[in-house]
Amino acid sequence: MSFGSGAGRRVLADREACPCGSGGAYGGCCGPVIRGGAAPTAEALMRSRYTAFAVGDERHLLATWHPRTRPDVLELDPRLTWTRLEILAVDEGVDGDETGVVEFRAEWRGGGGRGILHERSSFTRLRGRWCYLDGEVE
């Protein structure tokens, strides 16, 4: 399975703008989740996963993928750069829910082209923590 990333793994400073587009600084947004903290919502986990794609953090992507659907190998394509995330809809996925769905568009460029990934991602709780289950590409 191959997905795009930034050009190799990039480490962000806490004060830098978070790649997920929330408008917040990385250290108060996706940083704590990527460093192993629990995401408070399915949307927060989805944003952290987008940020992991943007910086090339395979470890976070695999760690937050449900073991039942997680690939054995994850290869991030260094030719692709993720450039923008837009959350379109969120269904459940908050405190008290066991499942959630986040619909988003993620823009990328590289490999001689540009594109948009439009997906409805499903999340579930596993041992009290949100994890990515699967996605339906629109």
TrEMBL record:
Coiled coil spans: none
InterPro entries attached to this UniProt entry: NTF2-like_dom_sf (IPR032710), YchJ-like (IPR023006), YchJ-like_M (IPR048469)
Domain YchJ-like middle NTF2-like: 41-135
Highest taxon listed in the record's lineage: Bacteria
Record Pfam families: YchJ_M-like
PANTHER family: ADENYLATE CYCLASE-ASSOCIATED CAP C-TERMINAL DOMAIN-CONTAINING PROTEIN, UPF0225 PROTEIN SCO1677
Family: Belongs to the UPF0225 family.
Protein name: UPF0225 protein HLA99_02895
Organism expressing this protein natively: Microbacterium ulmi
Highest classification ranks of the organism: Bacteria, Bacillati, Actinomycetota, Actinomycetes, Micrococcales
